[in-house]
Amino acid sequence: MTDQVNPKDYPGKDVYAVIGNPIAHSKSPLIHEIFANQTNQAIHYGRIFSELNEFKKTTLEFFECGGKGLNVTIPFKLQAYELAQHKTLRAQSAKAANMLWVENGQWWCDNSDGEGLTRDLRRLLKERDASLSGISVLLLGAGGAAQGVIEPLIGAGVASISIANRTHEKAEALVQQFSELASKAKMTLKVMSLTALTDPQTHPASYDLIINATAAGLSDVSPISKDVLRAIVHPDTLAYDMVYGKETCFMQDAKALGILVVDGLGMLVEQAALAFETWRKLDLQKTPLDINGALAAVRASY
User: Fold this and answer.
1) The domain 115-263 belongs to what CATH superfamily?
2) Distance CA 222, CA 253 (A)
3) pTM
4) Which candidate in 13, 27, 57, 77 is catalytic?
5) Mean pLDDT by 10-residue block, N- to C-terminus, for the chain (302 residues)?
6) Would residue 77 show up in a list of annotated catalytic residues for this protein?
7) How would you classify residue 66: left for phi > 0, otherwise alpha for psi between -120 and 50, otherwise beta?
8) What is the topology classification, in CATH, of domain 7-111+268-300?
9) Alpha carbon 68 to chain centroid, angstroms
């Protein structure tokens, strides 16, 4: 099978990989290769395809053969979280993991998705002389992707997060999960029904940031219509879709309305940087990663 990695095949190098199903599309090997070249690190980073019922077996084999770390993507983030003996606070908050590694014979996991998103948003907003502090956020979706970014957004100082999802109960569960954290931060966290978005009595005049955390973009539909989007944006609204590598319907609608729209590639690069920093224990004051260079190289690869 093409997408398999045996660490024993790379003597003299620390071996890492991304594991998922599907996995052939992943740009993670390219991103880590770029970071390794920037910092003169002797590593090999590949892709691993795992059958749905063989994640634990495949992961064990990788580490038993000398693998150093795994990035974990769909649909194995929950299994990765359950597999680890030690879970970072970020992983505990998200109840899912996108990183696995071994220290002193013990398995560790982390979730860098949320921090990857907020890093990317800070970079984008800084270019506009703006910040995350005090802004209003609409989060579309209430699945694992949304769950992993709520705490980092609260920590970044946003003023409010409204969660809109087709299933009201799932959105309500997320609000309950993070309500104490939101209360301590003195910010507003609430459920906003998709139908209420069109009602001027129930939604604010507009949102500063709208994040599409649904998988709708993968199936060429948008979680909200263009008319709804028009009703809840202002000229400086940022529309962010976590999907990368294609222009989704959500992104097309936002572009047609004349607002800034970006895909999730920056988030992917930033969460990869967090994994690279964690695993290689780099002094980033001496060897900072060139995020913009990595982003440009990955975009050029499409």
Assistant:
1) NAD(P)-binding Rossmann-like Domain (3.40.50.720)
2) 9
3) 0.89
4) 77
5) 79 95 89 94 95 94 95 90 94 90 92 93 94 96 86 95 93 94 96 78 79 82 91 95 90 96 95 94 80 92 84
6) yes
7) left
8) Rossmann fold (3.40.50)
9) 22
